[in-house]
Amino acid sequence: PVGSAYTEAKEFPEMLSTVTDPNLEVFQVTTNLDGMSGRGGFFTPDSKRFIFMRQWGKQSQFTLAEVGDGFKLRNMMAVDEQAKAPSVSPDSRYLYYFADESASDKPRIVFKRLSLETFRVEVVTVYDKPVDGIGRRPRGGMGGGASMRADGKMILGGFNFVGDDGENHFSPVLVNPETGAIRGFEWEPYSWR
User: Average model confidence (pLDDT) for the chain?
Assistant: First the structure.
């Protein structure tokens, strides 16, 4: 269940060698690796936890690991959430991410905020109209990450936008995490010719 703590961590002495400091402890944080890969790990700003993505085929899920509590794990959201481009608030209380619903019958990107204390998710805003500065509606394809400014007042991310040629073209965007206000950079479709 989302938010419930569980442990998979175990000591992993196989990673030690004859030249390793004898006081070094090595742990394997996850053990359920059947068909799964871990991607995109990063620490929260307070360094007490880290977040990584578990991926099974086309399904993925962000998982939180408590560094100072035996590497207890918590699944942060449902597997079908399609969360992309995560970033954590400077106070380490919230994870912001974009849910890619661009393949649905009502294509859109949903900007969400997840509490790292209660694991409750709230929708900040929905992007289903042309973005200022770009003049086009986003169509998924967010990059692997986003970056939050140190003061927590802006997130730099990016989306694909459909060009006049019908193809996806990536463009960076700036997002206010409190209001969801978005601004794209001036953009024109490019050609490799």
Answer: 84
